[in-house]
């Protein structure tokens, strides 16, 4: 297993005025040399890490959510935050495959590649590391299980469209104890079943499962009672809480990655209502996680995004009233605009809440930010994986 920098060493470098803190050397061509990482002081090893990813959730999406709600989102109330540079190895604009790989492995790879470096060698993920530490692991997504983000934490393929290869690699590794996401058909279930995974049909039964390897195929949407193609859906926050109850049965702890996938879809569609509904459902899941973790001194919650989608631009005059007019009307407003239907190079937020973990918070009025690969390094430090 590769070695990782120790958080206390980052701190000493920071105090000495060093300008490069990521695992990648200062000569790395994949990002800005001046990027700095979050400083971890007096780090206590975390038993559990919960990583919540809002796909396509740029800073302006978060601001829109705050305006819509009329108060700060739950994630914005976290005590620590920084901005994250999202580029891939071969482009300033990343796709979800390269972004998920960076977050999951600490290595920037080319767009379209999942779980592999540019030489197409398999990379070690935070899921692999947690499994090696004896922890249970879980992956939840509100899109198909073969989507780029869930596969970025569990599968390996040279191209994101190689769904069967991704599913087989994820299932054969057996490093994930829980999968909860939508599966298109029984063909996608077969690799899981043939590798000993038990299917949990009812979401409510996840927390009671006794098998060490389970999966569920659910339509997870913003509204619990909605219907999609005749299939009843369930709320994202409910699935997350059920998963936490199951994963926390392991005395060694757990790692959970849960993605709100359809914030991204709202951006691609330039649909402000769709985006807001999915963002609110994602923040509900963040709130549910905090409520579950309340009173615990062994759990760190990290909320971030893989990239921004839609190049959302906000203008003076956007407030709750003018936003609601667009939300309830035709979706258009003179107070905001979509610059594209694709991804952008915008930096995204990373919010961190950790009981008994002392983070030193930067002043974010400067250009200081971390790389997406640093999120992986932070999680490794919290799990006590170091030189």
Description of the molecule:
The chain is α/β, with parallel strands linked by helices and 387 residues long. It is 32% helix and 21% strand. The protein is built from 12 helices and 19 strands. Strands 6-7-5-4-11-2-12-17-3-19 form a 10-stranded mixed beta sheet, sandwiched between helices. The protein has a 3-stranded mixed beta sheet with strand order 8-10-9. It has a two-stranded antiparallel ribbon with strand order 1-18. β9 and β10 form a beta hairpin. α2 packs across α10. The longest helix has 22 residues. The N terminus is likely disordered.
The number of helical elements comes to 12
How far apart are the termini? 11 Å
Structural class label: alpha/beta
Shape: globular
Q: Describe the oligomeric state of these chains in a short phrase.
A: single chain
Helix coverage percent: 25-40%
In short:
The chain has 387 residues and is of the alpha/beta class.
Helix and strand layout, with pairings?
Blueprint: H1 7-15, E1 39-41, E2 48-54, H2 59-69, E3 80-85, H3 96-105, H4 126-132, E4 136-144, H5 148-152, H6 163-173, E5 178-182, H7 186-194, E6 198-199, E7 214-217, E8 219-221, E9 227-228, E10 231-235, H8 236-247, E11 254-260, H9 262-268, H10 272-293, E12 299-304, E13 308-309, E14 312-314, H11 320-328, E15 336-338, E16 343-344, E17 348-354, E18 358-360, E19 370-371, H12 372-382
Parallel strand pairs: 2-11, 2-12, 3-19, 4-5, 4-11, 5-7, 6-7, 8-10
Antiparallel strand pairs: 1-18, 3-17, 9-10, 12-17, 13-16, 14-15
Task: Using brief descriptors, characterize the structure shown.
disordered N terminus, 12 helices, alpha/beta, globular, about 375 residues
